[in-house]
Amino acid sequence: MSDSLPPEFALIGKYFRPLAGPGSLDLRDDAALITPPPGRDLVLTADAMVGGVHFLVDDPPDLIGRKLLRVNLSDLAAKGATPLGYLLTVSTPRDTPESWFAGFATGLAQDQAAFNVTLLGGDTTSTPGPVIGGIASAGMDVSDGLVQDLGHICRASGLRAVIEAAQVPLSPAARGAGAAWLETCLTGGDDYELLLAVPPARETALLAAAAARGMAVTRIGAFHSGPPQVMVRDASGQPLALTKGGWSHF
Ligand code: ADP
Ligand code: MG
Fold first, then answer.
1. What are the pLDDT digits (tens) for 80-138?
2. pTM of whole model > 0.90?
3. How far out from the chain centre does Cα 6 lie?
4. Do 121 and 13 have their domain in common?
5. Which ligand is nearest to the CA of 10?
6. Which domain holds residue 33?
7. What total of structural domains would you count in the chain?
8. Are residues 123 and 150 both part of a single domain?
9. Residues 205-214: pLDDT tens digits?
10. How far is the CA of 89 from the centre of ligand 2 (A)?
11. Does residue 135 contact residue 202 with C-beta atoms inside 8 Å?
């Protein structure tokens, strides 16, 4: 890489400029220009891929590039569209080796040729990466109620979970509303929180990673061997009987 350019421009020039085609202005401008063929509609789509969600972070980078292009080309094919060009947004951890970009661009080049499409432009940034990287053994976002969503992890893992109701973080208003609201808080939807399963040996690492990012994290219970189900205990250790599991869209 050239020393005189910021790293992202050096990467763009070396690995992404060779992929650029008509309308890209050679990736030297702020934006691309395309003129659709006369009488044709422009069909636009965007599908993101996230490491650890849509691919394994140590997957071969050329395959990641090809998959990224294909998941988007597949949407265009579904609309009966002919691919014209694509925008590429790349956000990688700071310590990503240059060889990763080389492999990624090689995969893109292969599928560009196979599907007759070229790069129009994009954006390149770095990311500190996910806070749970290498720490949690399972994780999910909770949006249909804590008890119901935790049940998915229990079934997938073949484990029983026990939630300590008194440790579940609640807003002061919900806490003040008393026991009558507790069931709604534990089973109602629209939580938009993250639920992590963390081995006891990694708890300290999780707390340190969360503190470094100013994120609140609370231990609300534990997994045990046993039939896959969720049990909630009240402050005195007694099981709470819940009348509903969570939010259902049906
Ligand atoms: P900045 O906004 O930091 O000034 P830009 O985001 O405009 O820089 O990037 C400069 C040029 O490089 C633009 O033409 C942009 O489309 C292109 N570019 C940046 N990242 C990518 C990428 N990942 N793939 C393709 N083109 C890119
Ligand atoms: Mg930009």
1. 999 999 999 999 988 899 999 999 999 999 999 999 999 999 999 888 765 586 788 88
2. no
3. 27
4. yes
5. 1
6. 7-127
7. 2
8. no
9. 999 988 888 8
10. 9
11. yes
